[in-house]
Write a structure and sequence with these properties.
The chain has about 450 residues and is an alpha/beta fold. It folds into two domains: about 200 residues, Rossmann fold (3-Layer(aba) Sandwich); about 230 residues, Rossmann fold (3-Layer(aba) Sandwich), CATH 3.40.50.720. About 40% of the residues lie in helices and about 15% in strands. Strands 3-2-1-4-5-6-7-8 form an eight-stranded mixed β-sheet, sandwiched between helices. It has a six-stranded parallel β-sheet with strand order 11-10-9-12-13-14. Strand 4, helix 5 and strand 5 form a beta-alpha-beta unit.
């Protein structure tokens, strides 16, 4: 079976590599020739463990190809997978203009003598796939849905840093049809036969249901994340032990332990965006989702308070912050990825720099000569008080406080005694570490004034 994947972004490249692993021939289509060349040369623009090796293997085996010629690629395909981004820089909700443009091009390119399943894998608001199906009918009235083509909604749940695992061993697979089609279901069963063999649940429903399942799932997760961060603050005030509390909650089988971990706030593109799309969808129908709205508001407030927390720990007067140096450990919103979109670290660094503090950053994927630093906002990169360092030791050297924002495993493996010696400290006091990820225990950090969430 021949598959065309439209879009060479995160979802597209991961999907293409995994479909090749399943034994299919895959062609990635994108109008950006330079980006395609970079991927072919093993220079993908995001970090995903094992992805480059998979791509190179399948390109060598001639299972994977690249082109900017959409019409030709679709003419040779049994399945078209659309993965174009609906995220627009500095926009809080989905931008569907590119998606609708691409789906129209796909409709025009379909061969009426050949059945093609068109799969929408892009994350979209509720009702989008119905609009796409209607537009297909307007654009190609000569084609009969269910006979010559079908639109299939198939949203994914890919965690950055674990996307290959999530694609090949998902917790469930969502499939949406506008109307039941034996041909579409047959293609899906062939496409995902390796996953079906693992006895993984498949949920078949209409477009709106599978679109909403994804948004509602993320809405529930971000609510749990915001809730547990607020409970961690309550633990700090009452003297309760957050570690024991988390275990006590997680052991309740009605709750579980997923997303029950403290953090500086949820970030990335998927969770914040999906939560806002869910909220906007409900508001447009006159429904007020107070819990989800509260989770979003709580998350924003939490991130906004981090700068004040840092200043209170190292300054007698807030105006003295200009004489202080802060080490921020971790830039990405979570480990194993270089995605910094809506990362709490970016907001905190910007707030600190605006207060005239000096900020040293260390993140394993954002070293001085790395191409990834281009992702950092220009106003931060050009600030004379901002320094990207080569190591955790360079970051903490002469710093008044170290703030752990991302739970990179490397931080746990660092030489704590060396860090203690390098950091600034008040007279007769220990160096300060503020840990928003609870990576250490009090006993491990006996040489520091160690502040962690919920203790």
């Amino acid at each position: 079976m021949n598959i065309t994947v439209i879009g060479s972004g995160y979802v597209g490249v991961v999907s293409a590599a995994c479909f090749c692993e399943f034994g299919f021939n895959v062609c990635i289509v994108d109008t950006d020739k330079q980006r395609l060349e970079m991927i072919k040369n093993g220079d993908i623009v995001f970090n995903e463990l094992g992805l480059n090796q998979m791509l190179q293997k399948h390109e060598t085996n001639e299972c994977l190809s690249f082109t900017d010629d959409l019409r030709t690629a679709i003419g040779l395909s049994d399945v078209v997978v659309i993965t174009v981004s609906t995220t627009k820089a500095n926009e809080p909700v989905s931008d569907l203009s590119n998606l609708h443009q691409v789906t129209q091009q796909v409709a025009l390119a379909l061969n009426k003598d050949h059945y093609t399943a068109v799969i929408i894998k892009t994350s979209v608001p509720v009702g989008t796939c119905t609009i796409i199906a209607d537009n297909f009918g307007f654009t190609r009235p000569d084609l009969v849905p269910g006979e010559q083509y079908d639109i299939v909604a198939n949203p994914g749940f890919l965690r950055e840093g674990a996307a290959i695992y999530d694609f090949m061993t998902p917790s469930r697979v969502l499939i949406g049809f506008n109307s039941h089609s034996a041909k579409a279901k047959g293609v899906i069963e062939m496409l995902y036969s390796s996953i079906i063999a693992l006895k993984i649940p498949f949920i078949y429903s209409n477009f709106e249901t599978v679109e909403l399942i994804r948004l509602a799932s993320i809405g529930f997760i971000v609510t749990k994340m915001a809730f547990i961060n607020e409970i961690a603050d309550l633990c700090s005030r009452t003297g309760a032990d957050i570690s024991a509390l988390l275990r006590g909650i997680a052991l309740d089988q009605k709750i579980g332990n997923k997303a029950l971990e403290v953090s500086p706030g949820f970030g990335g593109v998927s969770y914040p965006k999906a939560a806002r799309v869910l909220l906007k969808t409900a508001n447009s129908l006159g429904i007020d989702l107070k819990i989800v709205s509260g989770a979003i508001e709580s998350n924003c407030e939490r991130i906004a308070k981090i700068k004040d927390k840092i200043i209170s720990l190292i300054c007698d007067e807030p105006t003295n912050i200009s004489f202080k140096q802060i080490a921020i450990l971790g830039l990405s919103f979570k480990p194993l990825t270089d995605d910094i979109r809506e990362s709490a670290s970016i907001f905190v660094i910007n707030d600190l720099l605006e207060s005239k503090a000096k900020v040293n950053l260390y993140d394993p994927l954002f070293k001085p000569q790395s191409k990834t630093i281009q992702k950092i906002p220009e106003n931060i990169l050009k600030n004379e008080n901002f320094l990207i360092t080569e190591s955790i030791y360079e970051a903490v050297n002469q710093s008044d406080i170290a703030v752990i924002m991302t739970h990179w495993p490397e931080f746990r493996a660092s030489n704590l005694k060396k860090i203690q010696e390098l950091m600034n400290k008040k007279k007769n006091a220990k160096p300060i570490i503020l840990d928003y990820r609870n990576m250490f225990t009090k006993s491990e950090m006996a040489g520091f004034e160690y502040i962690f969430q919920g203790h």
